[in-house]
Amino acid sequence: MSRFFARSAGLGLPGMAIAGAFVIAWAGPAAAVPMADADPASRADNRYCAVLVGKDADPDAPSSALAAACSDTSRDDARTKMRQAAERTAPRAEAASSDLLMTWFDDAHYNGSSTDIYGDSGPCDSAGYEIQLSTTWPWSWGNTISSAAGTETCDTADFISQSGTYARTFNLPVPYIGNTLNDNVRTIRVWND
Fold it and tell me: Deepest in the core among 86, 102, 104, 180, taking most CB within 10 A?
């Protein structure tokens, strides 16, 4: 049983039904994402994006987006631009921004546009990172994500539907998140299992 389901179980819900009470209480990101680098339209026009997320002091609070950037050239170029944005908005985070947590893809089987997610608090541990796409994200990934890859230290993820009524845990990578979650994700929690 994942930690996410363990936290939800206390709410008296069936195993796959998830209440959003602990994820919707968060008011906003800890630092603003430079919109010149993370224009919402830019993800649609670019193939590669990179986002730096931070952990909240409250272990039950979602991670916040600290910096973001996109590139039509390469993943490396997107990462470089993200690091430059991090230097402007979250200087303490820049040094650790080399810790790749996971990569999201528009299409099944790791195809289409992609976004690399980096953690400012180092690689995944058992607490991991919780990313709320509906409130902390510079783009509408919740409406496009179809597959995801992890890393050696971020190998498991919970995907929760936009309505909060369905969740599924995957070992990463996952070539297709399934019909119910495809283009329908509100929250992703990634950790090392």
Answer: 86
